[in-house]
Amino acid sequence: MPLPRTGTNALLELLSPYIPDEAIGAAVPRHRGSGRRTEWSAGQLYRVLLLLLLTPARSANLLCALLPEQRAWRRFAHLPNQRRLPNVRQLHEFRGRLTPGVLRGINAILLQRVLASWPSEQAGIGLIDATDLPAATQDIKKVDGPVLGAAGDPRRPHEEDRAGALFHRVQKAHAAALAGAL
Q: Over pLDDT 70: what percentage of the chain?
């Protein structure tokens, strides 16, 4: 089952029915009490955050700037008005309320909906679990001194060197603990 290209209106229309707005609203209730109140539901704000992944807009600032011009994006996020749209502060505050447990629950519901409509003649499905993938952040670290790395290149940490140094420290700590016990 080929999907439309990322960022196209066809992809947004295809994915929109799978998003569980009512479950998101139950998992992330509206703000109660004193302070600023949001006029947007949790489902709407979640859909706006999804647009960061599904469109070429890669920052909340750019997304909020482009949202008034993009009718398909507003339709996907169930935003009826072209002038009254969520701002960056509202998106940031909502993103802060999305805990890992809430996101896991939403992902479980999304997976159930996708698998329920999966064609029975297709034998299998493969899903990527990103929790096992290492983050590629070593090139963008801001470090004052050299980072433990491969010989000759202090900027790029080498996986074996880090593992060896950690293993050596564990051996030393174990030997010290044994000597203390004797």
A: 64
Residues 38 and 16: beta-carbon distance below 8 Å? no
Q: 102: how many CB neighbours lie within 10 A of its CB?
A: 15
**Angle at alpha carbon of residue 110, lines to 17 and 96, rounded to 5°:** 105
For residues 66 and 52, the answer to whether their CB atoms sit within 8 Å is no
> For residues 79 and 61, what is the distance between their CA atoms, to the nearest angstrom?
17
Over residues 85-100, the pLDDT tens digits come to 999 999 998 998 898 8
Q: How far is CA 24 from CA 5, 19, 97, 101, 136, in A?
A: 26, 9, 12, 12, 30
Query: What's the whole-number average pLDDT of the chain?
Result: 77
For the stretch 123-176, pLDDT in tens is 776 766 666 666 666 666 555 555 555 555 555 555 544 545 544 454 555 444
Buried residues in 103-137 as b, exposed as e (16+ CB within 10 A): eebbeebeeeeeeeeeeeeeeeeeeeeeeeeeeee
Q: Which residues pair with 153 in a beta bridge?
A: 150
| HEC secondary structure over 120-173 | CCCCCCCCCCHHHCCCCCCCCCCCCCCCCCECCECCCCCHHHHHHHHHHHHHHH
DSSP assignment letter at 77: T
42, 27 contact by CB (below 8 A): yes
